[in-house]
Write a structure and sequence with these properties.
Rossmann fold, two-stranded antiparallel ribbon, 23% strand, binds NADP nicotinamide-adenine-dinucleotide phosphate
């Protein structure tokens, strides 16, 4: 069984994690809500709007209680949950934590495991564009989350739009495509200059 580590996979990337589970992956999800208290039951039953909690069926995620503010502890707990080095890393980690968290989990990845880094457009410095991948030893697809325009107004991407777009990057990564930067929704052109 292939193993994916999905950071931020209990939020808007839940659909992405669910699809990997449906494809038979072991999916490890670090989460602040993965403890043994009532919050963890709520998290296991987590679904989209209108979701009706049901008995757990099919391949279930491996939830690991962890916080990005303690990267070494997060890595140690993920290590304990892994059956083998992870074959894929998908990372939606807020900018202030991204470097320490990705560097902490890097030793848990198989040597050739691809990485999908997900960025919010608001975190990208217009003068610098998207930064180089944090883990240069791993082929990395970078995804920039933009916005959706409706006439004169804009909105953020829905969770589904985000997960679908990130899954496309996951498939490019697994197909061994060259590292590249992709946008979901509209992104000002300066943001994706490298
Ligand atoms: N451009 C865009 O379209 C765009 C970009 C960014 C955000 N958004 C919108 O903004 C909303 C909020 O974004 P968001 O990133 O706060 O929510 P999110 O992606 O829905 O959830 C945040 C994810 O990060 C995890 N997380 C957050 N802080 C953590 C920490 N300290 N340690 C461990 N895990 C942590 C959460 O895990 P646990 O809660 O399970 O611990 C969860 O998996 C989203 O729902 C989305 O609609 C849109």
């Amino acid at each position: 069984m292939r193993t994916a580590l999905v950071l931020g996979g209990t939020g808007m990337l839940k659909g992405c994690a669910d699809e990997l589970l449906a494809q038979g992956w072991q999916v490890v999800l670090p989460s602040r809500r993965a403890g043994s208290g009532p919050g963890s039951a709520a998290l296991r039953a987590l679904g989209g709007r209108g979701h009706v909690p049901q008995e757990a069926q099919g391949n279930q995620p491996t939830l690991v209680e962890a916080d990005w503010s303690r990267p070494e502890e997060l890595a140690n707990r993920v290590r304990a949950a892994l059956k083998a080095p992870a074959d894929l890393l998908v990372a939606w980690v807020h900018a202030s934590y991204r470097v320490p968290v990705l560097e902490a989990v890097a030793p848990l990845l198989a040597p050739d495991a691809p990485v999908v880094e997900v960025h919010d457009i608001g975190d990208i410095n217009p003068r610098e564009g998207v930064r180089d991948p944090i883990l240069p030893g791993h082929p990395t697809q970078q995804v920039v989350l933009g916005f959706v325009r409706h006439g004169s107004t804009t909105r953020w991407l829905s969770h589904e739009e985000t997960s679908v777009g990130v899954l496309e990057a996951v498939h490019r990564a697994l197909d061994g495509k060259s590292p590249s930067i992709h946008q979901i929704g509209e992104v000002d052109t300066w943001a994706v200059r490298s």
